[in-house]
Amino acid sequence: MTCLKSKDLFWYGLIWITTTLVFMLAAFGNCATYLIQKRTDRTTTWSFDVGYVNAAACGIYGYSLVVPVAFYFLLRYLGSNASLIRFWCMWGYSLSIFIPTAFLLLIPVEILRWIIILVAGTASSCFVTLNLTSYIGGSNDLRMMMIAAFLLQMALAIFIKVWFFP
After folding, report:
1. I need a labelling partner for 15 at 20 to 30 A (CA). Which of 37, 40, 84, 134 fits?
2. Where does the chain cross the membrane (predicted)?
3. Across residues 128-155, what is the average pLDDT?
4. What is the sign, positive or negative, of the torsion defined by CA atoms of 133, 137, 143, 144?
5. Percent of the chain residues past pLDDT 90, beyond the cut
6. Are 156 and 119 contacting, i.e. CB atoms less than 8 angstroms apart?
7. Could you tell me the residue range of the domain that residue 26 belongs to?
8. CA–CA distance, 17 with 99 (Å, rounded to integer)
């Protein structure tokens, strides 16, 4: 699970995975909204809500850029030898599980959708947390940062479910 030990880090995580996720959330979020409306009102017609693209872009790109920077500066302040580029790549790659999850969230069973997003959020959170262990010593302050990273990833997963797949 900790695959980010290579010196040849690729920017795919930050650039391509986040961009793919933005468009997948916008497309599948629109589809899910249409399918839910169609189940309750048979006369509903398809209309693409471009607001999903804006929300996905702001939410995903903002999260992918700001959260790693915050963790970088906090860890540097606490004396850790953190790498901003490594953090951007790590958080970008942690979002890859949400791409197939967006497709699975089209399933019209609400309890199953919640289980899917919580499993994906947990997997993504574990990926980030396990990769942060190389920067964390025995300090309780630094362990709190691992918990914060886990909770932030879970918050992102819940945001994806609530905002794009109501």
Report:
1. 134
2. 9-36, 51-75, 87-105, 111-132, 144-164
3. 84
4. negative
5. 60
6. no
7. 13-40+48-164
8. 8
Structural domain contains residue 65: yes
Give the C-alpha separation, 36 to 34, whole Å: 5
Q: Do 149 and 132 form a contact (C-beta atoms < 8 A)?
A: yes
Q: Would you list the DSSP string of 71-100?
A: HHHHHHHTT----HHHHHHHHHHHTTTHHH
Domain-embedded: residue 5: no
pTM: 0.88
Under the banding of pLDDT at 50, 70 and 90, the label for residue 78 is: confident
Average pLDDT score over residue span 51-75: 95
Residue showing tokens 């886990």: 150
- CA neighbours within 13 Å on the CB side: how many for 13? 23
69 domain-assigned: yes
CA–CA dist 163, 58 (Å, integer) = 12
Look at the chain and report how many structural domains it folds into.
1
Q: How far apart are CA 11 and CA 124, in angstroms?
A: 18
